[in-house]
Write a structure and sequence with these properties.
386 residues; 17 helices; 81% helix; mainly alpha
């Protein structure tokens, strides 16, 4: 069957609402630090624990989508996310919150189950557009989650955000149950063979290796920026509260509107071209951030560049990866996304380290260096094809 526009929009909405679980904690770092009486940089560890959990879930759970019925897996994982969010909301110690953050990450992999499902039910000539549309939902969820979380945290407290997120996921559970199509897998082997085949894909698919490595460096920049931005904007000279910091998510969400256009361009031309432009935009954004240490407008412009850039890299690479082996889309997505989000987790930790060492300027220089590494990978692989 082919997906209807309604199906695609439902998938985009569910993707955005569930991936938001990974980012609600970011504007709440200062509030959490105050409640548990710990340094803000220490409270920031929950950001990369959530991302690391997501990477773990991607690696060990997403491949099952090639072996078991995908809708069933999506439903089970969504309900598990409700439980993890409730543990976070009721955590009595920071250690329990850290464990809950890891579990929230592990159980929030539903977007990476939805995307291969959508790709499997879409004609090749429409795949980039559909993936781009669903990615719009994902990116809006990522960016607006910070706005919602900042506002809720300021008005109702940080725990309320996790309670609300649990309620949202429970509602999504019933929407998925009613709206999503059944999709039978094709892999007939054991779970062990399934996991082993991931390493075979890495070894035999050069496009997968290139796309994944570029994504690692790009997602690391993204994670480093959004984690340290909270610390930057809450201090001098801005002294913004969590609600105000969250508003910057709206600026980033405006860039998410470009996602379907990027995907559509990939359907008509070589999507690898968009990867190069995306890397360039991300690099430019950190030059803007470097010179915007006292400029809200400069930060807003840099965020737009950063988010359009990450879309150009990610959507185009994802379209390339999905075109390789139709029968292995979940496993291809596992390799691609698990390493990408390990990049985000490492980037968040890297950003916090840079912040401790040299503040905002150290963060921007360090992220620009990651941009350079992404360009090197892009250039070397381009030359190797000549």
């Amino acid at each position: 069957m082919n997906l209807s526009k309604t199906n695609v929009l439902f998938m985009a909405a569910c993707t955005g609402l569930i991936v938001a679980n990974l980012y609600y904690c970011q504007p709440l770092i200062v509030l959490i630090a105050n409640e548990f009486k710990i340094p803000e940089a220490n409270a920031g560890t929950i950001t990369y624990l959530t991302q690391a959990g997501y990477a773990i879930g991607l690696f060990f759970m997403v491949p099952l989508g090639d072996k078991i019925e995908r809708k069933k897996q999506i439903l089970i994982t969504t309900f598990s996310s409700v439980i993890a969010l409730l543990i976070a909301a009721t955590a009595k110690s920071f250690f329990i919150l850290q464990i809950a953050s890891l579990l929230v990450g592990i159980t929030s992999i539903v977007p990476q189950l939805i995307l291969p499902l959508a790709a499997s039910l879409t004609a090749p000539e429409q795949r980039g557009k559909v993936v781009g549309t669903i990615m719009s939902g994902l990116l809006v969820g990522i960016l607006l989650s910070r706005t919602l979380s900042g506002f809720i945290g300021q008005v109702l407290g940080w725990r309320s955000m996790f309670y609300i997120a649990a309620g949202i996921c429970l509602l999504i559970f019933f929407v998925i149950q009613k709206q999503f199509p059944v999709n039978k897998p094709q892999f007939q082997g054991t779970y062990g063979q399934l996991i082993t085949s991931l390493f075979t894909l890495i070894k035999t698919q050069p496009v997968l290796r290139e796309a994944t490595l570029i994504n690692i460096f790009s997602f690391a920049q993204f994670g480093a920026f959004w984690t340290t931005m909270v610390l930057f904007l809450s201090g001098e000279p801005f002294h913004f509260n969590s609600a105000t910091i969250g508003l910057f998510g709206i600026v980033g969400a405006s860039g998410a509107l470009a996602a379907p256009l990027v995907g559509k361009m990939g359907d008509k031309k070589d999507p690898r071209i968009a990867v190069g432009y995306g890397c360039l935009l991300m690099c430019i954004s950190f030059f803007i951030f470097y010179f915007s240490i006292e400029s809200v407008i400069g930060i807003a412009i840099g965020i737009v560049f950063l988010d359009i850039g990450i879309q150009g890299v990610h959507i185009s690479n994802q379209t390339r990866v999905y075109s390789l082996l139709p029968e292995a889309r979940n496993r291809l997505n596992t390799v691609f996304m698990s390493f990408s989000f390990l990049g985000t987790a490492a980037g968040s930790a890297y950003g916090l380290l840079l912040w401790k060492l040299g503040g905002w300027h150290a963060v921007t220089i360090g992220c620009a260096l990651l941009s350079l590494f992404a360009f090197i990978v892009y250039g070397l692989t381009y030359k190797s094809k000549k």
